[in-house]
Amino acid sequence: MTALPDLTRLVADHRPRFRTATEFVEATLRHAILTGVLAGGTPLRQDDLAALMGVSRMPIREALRQLEAKALVEFHPHRGAVVVSITAEDAADISAIRHALEPAALALSLPHLTPDDFALADDLIADMDAETDPGRMGELNRRFHMTLYARAGRPRLLALTEQHLAAADRYLRFQFAALEYQTRSQDEHRALLAACRAGDTAGACAIVADHIGRAEGLLTAFLSERAKGADAPARRGQNKT
Amino acid sequence: MTALPDLTRLVADHRPRFRTATEFVEATLRHAILTGVLAGGTPLRQDDLAALMGVSRMPIREALRQLEAKALVEFHPHRGAVVVSITAEDAADISAIRHALEPAALALSLPHLTPDDFALADDLIADMDAETDPGRMGELNRRFHMTLYARAGRPRLLALTEQHLAAADRYLRFQFAALEYQTRSQDEHRALLAACRAGDTAGACAIVADHIGRAEGLLTAFLSERAKGADAPARRGQNKT
DNA sequence: AGAGTGGATATTGGATCCAATTCCATTTGG
DNA sequence: CCAAATGGAATTGGATCCAATATCCACTCT
């Protein structure tokens, strides 16, 4: 059968939102990867995906190429595509990018934030307090951050930022099991929002930088520990039971 | 016929360096776009490209999707792909990204730079002094900057940096006509290298930031002026003879 | 018995074919 | 004479088909 998790829900959800099959497939797979439904190391069989999505292999291939360009999947010639799994080094790498991009986006955006933006950010914090599902938590976290950056007026900068924020969140979902992280993270979110409301650009940027650094520390620790536990957790389809 | 410029040289050059046709096509087109051989607004007919590259339309399509993910081309459903032309807003956008990434990369890399790196940077500055072709100039400029960032030990950060540095260079080639830019740019390059040699991280980062800002100013001015001159320079293939 | 080799199989890479959509030009009616 | 509709041509989007390559397993030879 298929070693893929059940994506019918995602498929049905994304299907009507796109005109071309390629865009639909790309969006669906990207969502699945970023929310962790498709874990790192998962082999992506073109035939399986085609059957699952109800299209032929061609849109699948185009979508996979796009995801490759976004560093979400990896092609091995004649051996197929796999979801890239993030190592501790990659985590530091992505964190460095966030560390560069997010304060810059925030500094550009902060002067143009409106009361509506602050209210939305408040709501998102409250939602995160109530949320327990790690997947939705990542989504909320991402939206909270992007709300604060949104007024930067730099579409490419924002797209890059969101992309890497999402890449980090993809593994941050494991962190939410580490209970104390959530409360501390929420404290930082509140402090960040307060600094934004006060118009304290330097302070807000410092908080964001610190926030990213802390998340990186936890993520790196988690990944290195997991790497010790299982050296080669997922190579090929190894359901030999 | 084809409205495309002569790419046979690029094709022959890249052809042996890749195993799969898709990767070859992607690299060739990317190179052509980044060096300005394919100008912004150029419509990319899949048939023409296929004939030019000596492959079928499918690798072309996959490559175009990758370039779309990298924001180098733009798809219009059922109307084809065009090379994205950079507006003054886009220039500011890309500049903001460079402004965020390059000082970060430099700060990480600087402590690990070796005498060999400095020597290579010296050579590249000398080469730029002697170079007159704008296309090769962009290449040298890119290599100079990347040499200084290369020891950051963050592959993704470096890839992003190079990508946006190249995107800027793509239009910076028009700047080199503006004579005084080159001498000033070279002065800044020398100052930057000196700061790196001295181990002055903060100073080097400041110089880079300033360098990027100045380039942005010139580029923005150029683009806005050109926008006034020709409002819609290239729409479709208008060779009705 | 173990290692190396050969073939069978599965999966991707690439080419060709067909349908759907858009754009352009011509034509026709007011 | 101009505007709107209609038909055709060109081009892309998607599906199917064929070839190339890597993996896996059985078999043989040392």
In short:
Chain A is mainly α. Helix content of chain A is 68%, strand content 4%.
Write the layout of secondary structure elements.
The structure is a homodimer of 241-residue chains.
Chain A: H1 8-14, H2 21-34, E1 43-44, H3 46-53, H4 57-69, E2 73-76, E3 80-83, H5 88-109, H6 115-130, H7 134-149, H8 155-175, H9 179-197, H10 201-229
Antiparallel strand pairs in A: 1-3, 2-3
Chain A binds a DNA duplex (30 and 30 nucleotides) through residues 20-22, 45-47, 55-59, 61-62, 75, 77-81, 236.
Could you walk me through the main structural features you see in this protein, from its secondary elements to its overall organization?
- The structure is a homodimer of 241-residue chains.
- Chain A has helices spanning 8-14, 21-34, 46-53, 57-69, 88-109, 115-130, 134-149, 155-175, 179-197, 201-229, and strands at 43-44, 73-76, 80-83.
- Chain A has 241 residues and is mainly alpha-helical.
- The first copy, chain A, folds into two domains: 8-85, Winged helix-like DNA-binding domain superfamily/Winged helix DNA-binding domain (Arc Repressor Mutant, subunit A, Orthogonal Bundle), CATH 1.10.10.10; 88-228, GntR ligand-binding domain-like (Four Helix Bundle (Hemerythrin (Met), subunit A), Up-down Bundle).
- The first copy, chain A, has a three-stranded antiparallel beta sheet.
- In chain A, strand 2 (73-76) and strand 3 form a beta hairpin.
